[in-house]
């Protein structure tokens, strides 16, 4: 990923925790569908541009033909949208499990867990970068 400082890792962890507090699993179906579609369109669109315009990402290669770029980009968009739907369902399942166990503030627990995991992964990533 790169050389992130401990401060940057901490800021990212806090942002992750704050976003994890949002109860996206309880959002209306239309909001969740829009989020999944937006994620898919963004990922697919970015992939299409990167494949067709390698100069924009400083890649030393020829552009991929439009048809192949469209197929790959559409597949990536569908995967990204599907991952978003799965993530929302997983989030909701974790929240329900915490509620069943009598946790008073399940979203806060998920936010703290998200922040801790984010920070831990950044620390491990930094360590693996220095091992090379």
TrEMBL record:
<feature type="transmembrane region" description="Helical">
    <location>
        <begin position="6"/>
        <end position="24"/>
    </location>
</feature>
<keyword id="KW-1133">Transmembrane helix</keyword>
<keyword id="KW-0812">Transmembrane</keyword>
<feature type="transmembrane region" description="Helical">
    <location>
        <begin position="71"/>
        <end position="90"/>
    </location>
</feature>
<feature type="transmembrane region" description="Helical">
    <location>
        <begin position="102"/>
        <end position="121"/>
    </location>
</feature>
<keyword id="KW-0472">Membrane</keyword>
<feature type="transmembrane region" description="Helical">
    <location>
        <begin position="31"/>
        <end position="51"/>
    </location>
</feature>
<protein>
    <submittedName>
        <fullName>Uncharacterized protein</fullName>
    </submittedName>
</protein>
């Amino acid at each position: 990923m790169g050389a992130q400082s401990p401060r940057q890792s901490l800021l990212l962890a806090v942002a992750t925790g704050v976003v994890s507090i949002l109860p996206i699993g309880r959002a209306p179906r239309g909001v969740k569908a829009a989020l999944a579609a937006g994620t898919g369109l963004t990922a697919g669109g970015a992939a299409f541009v990167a494949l067709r315009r390698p100069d924009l990402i400083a890649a030393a290669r020829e552009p991929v033909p439009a048809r192949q770029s469209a197929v790959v980009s559409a597949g990536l968009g569908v995967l990204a949208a599907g991952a978003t739907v799965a993530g929302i369902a997983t989030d909701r399942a974790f929240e329900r499990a915490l509620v069943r166990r009598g946790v008073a503030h399940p979203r806060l627990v998920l936010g703290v867990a998200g922040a801790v995991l984010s920070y831990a992964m950044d620390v491990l990533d930094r360590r693996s970068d220095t091992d090379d």
